[in-house]
Amino acid sequence: MTHQEIKELLPLYVVGGLEVESVTAIEHHLAEQCESCTAELREWQEIAGLIPLGVTPEGPSVEVKGRLLDRIRQERGAKVVSFRPRRWRPLVVGIPLAAAAALLLTFAGLRYQDAIRIAAEQQSRTATVTALLAQEQEKLASRERELQQLALQVQEQQSTAAEKSQQVAQLESALAEQRQLVSTRDQELTRLQIQLAARKPEEVPSPQSGSSVQVMAEYEREIENLKTALSQAREKIAVSENSLQEVHALLAQQRQQFEAGTRELVQLREAVARQRGVIEVLTAPGLQVRSLQRAKLGLETEGHVLWNERRKAWLFYAFGMPPAPEGKEYQVWFMTEREGPVSAGLFSPDQAGVGQVLAAPPSKLYGKINAVAVTLEPAGGLPKPSGEMYLRGSL
């Protein structure tokens, strides 16, 4: 119950015309030492106190006045002049008893009508908050499930990336060994070719050159075998290099997926934290609610602004909002007493046309917040509103 609502119910509180819940709320508010409500309560109690003052009090008797005058003469020795007796009047301070009672009953009747209106408004606000709270709790549960699934997915991606990294390391090690083997055989082939060239016989063979020809034939066979082995080794290297490139590509893709999943996980965790903040605002004591009305003809837009002084948080809802054009966003504004419009945040409505902003209140230097509004602005927002207004509401 707000301060103003409590103030309007004070006449009914004085005459005992409220229910237990309202009495408890008023007494709790008065216990917080609200000076204005306490002062107004005293005024209503004084008006109510006039009702039993309908009996006119009697004046003092002649004997009592005589004894009092004699005593004063004895104690002071001064001359005391008796004044003309005055007629005693009831203490009504200018308000006759009937008028006071009628005034109180009239005000009580008006306030009772106001109380009925306030109760209806309070019931409507309670229903609004209850519906919003149920919606936010459902969203929180959905996002928490999504967060859990995404965390498992990112963990699997991290494990897969680690396996691919290990596979790349193994392939690179095997490829290094194959290259080393090819290098060694290349060196051996070069050595054999040099030896073969050194033993090559003259163009005209001699009888003594038979053994040399046999040795050269062996060198040539060995060289051919070595060339074959080298060719096979190089083919294996080519296959290993292709495999390594494929695994490198898979590893890069896996790392990209892991990084994207990690970013999404961070964003989702922030969304869950923000969702919990919204629920805290909706469930904390002292929540106040006002409606936002459409400011643009032809659209069935509406909204709510909720704020909690204890939590130092404001919550804006917009419903029935059309999609923002490309390069545009909706911007929420605090209409402050000294600074004028102060940005509260930006939003783009979802597919159902719902937008939401959770904001901290502006600096106290800006003065009282008198109203809020929603306008369409360039993406990223502006320091002051420039676009068309879609929602507005006074506080």
3D architecture notes:
Residues 53-58 and 78-97 have low confidence and may be disordered. Strands 5-4-7-8-1-2-3-6 form an eight-stranded antiparallel sheet, with helices on one face. It has 395 residues and is an alpha+beta fold. Strand 2 and strand 3 (313-319) form a beta hairpin. The chain is built from six helices and eight strands. The chain has three domains: 3-76 and 90-138, no CATH class; 143-202 and 209-282, Helix Hairpins (Orthogonal Bundle); 287-394, Immunoglobulin-like (Sandwich), CATH 2.60.40. It has helices spanning 3-14, 20-31, 35-49, 62-76, 97-199, 210-283; strands spanning 287-294, 302-308, 313-319, 328-336, 340-347, 355-359, 369-378, 389-394.
Shape assignment: rod-shaped
Give the second-level CATH assignment, the architecture of the largest domain.
Orthogonal Bundle
Question: Using only CA atoms, what is the Rg?
Answer: 47 Å
Q: Would you tell me which CATH topology of the largest domain applies?
A: Helix Hairpins
Give the strand content: 15-25%
CATH class category of the largest domain: Mainly Alpha
C-alpha termini separation: 15 Å
Helical content band: 55-70%
Number of domains in the coordinates?
A: 3
Give the integer mean of the pLDDT values: 80
The main β sheet shows up as:
8 strands, antiparallel
Number of strands: 8
Low-confidence stretches: 53-58, 78-97
Helix count, per DSSP? 6
Class from helix and strand fractions: alpha+beta
* Main sheet: strand order: 5-4-7-8-1-2-3-6
Order of helices and strands: HHHHHHEEEEEEEE
